[in-house]
Amino acid sequence: MTDYKETGILSLDDIKKPSEDRLKKGPVVVIECVENIPCDPCVAACPKDAISMDEITDIPSIDFDGCIGCALCVTECPGLAIFVVDCTSDPCTITVPYEYLPVPEKGEKVFALDREGKRVQVSKVVRVRSSGKTYGITLEVDRENIWKVRGLEVKR
Ligand code: SF4
Ligand code: SF4
User: Fold this and answer.
1) Quick check: 113 and 103 in contact, CB under 8 A?
2) Residues with CB under 6 A from ligand 1
3) Which of 73, 76, 93 to mutate to test the pocket of ligand 1 (most atoms within 8 A of CB)?
């Protein structure tokens, strides 16, 4: 049993993770959307039809093998619930949605945060996507932190 309905904070038991084999092949989506809300922009955002749902209130279903890790869904999700993890090199990277100011710049060092907003490590910003409805910020993250880091705090 998990208690995210009381705390608002998901645990790893609440989300579907790609396999270790899939992680080795390239960047891949992680969707942390667990409520049956009427929402589906993630489905339309995906150019590979890797996200699907039968009804608009369904929890999104993910085809990890079909995903190319483009992160287009990350910047279209109004719930800020989608991430892209890339563990094909060290450090790994995580693309997280971001809606605060100031927006970090490429090359800037920021605090990488966990799901509770606690600082996990200092991370370098390696890419800033601004083409969607929200920013998608790609951070370098130590391999042991890829299932912890889900946000960022600008240091300046
Ligand atoms: S990262 Fe790209 S390919 Fe993967 S699910 Fe999202 S939109 Fe589709
Ligand atoms: S767009 Fe985001 S919040 Fe909406 S169903 Fe997809 S993952 Fe969930």
Assistant:
1) no
2) 29, 45-46, 48, 50-51, 67-73, 84
3) 73
Q: Is the minimum distance from the CB of 141 to ligand 2 under 6 angstroms?
A: no
The single-letter DSSP state of residue 46 is -
- Residues in Cβ contact with 52 at an 8 Å cutoff, skipping those fewer than 6 apart: 43, 60, 61, 63
Nearest to 27 by CA among 153, 126, 155: 126
pLDDT tens for the chain, residues 1 to 156: 558 889 999 999 999 999 999 999 999 999 999 999 999 999 999 999 999 999 999 999 999 999 999 999 999 999 999 999 999 999 999 999 999 999 999 999 999 999 999 999 999 999 999 988 999 999 999 999 999 999 999 998
What DSSP string runs through 71-114? Answer: -TTTTT-TT--EEEEE-SSSSEEEEEEE--SSPP-TT-EEEEE-
Ligand 2 contact, 41 CB (< 6 A) = yes
Residue 45 host element (H or E): helix 41-45
The tokens describing 145, both together, are 């932190």
Q: Whose CA is nearest to atom 6 of ligand 1?
A: 73
Q: Is the CB of 60 under 6 A from ligand 2?
A: yes
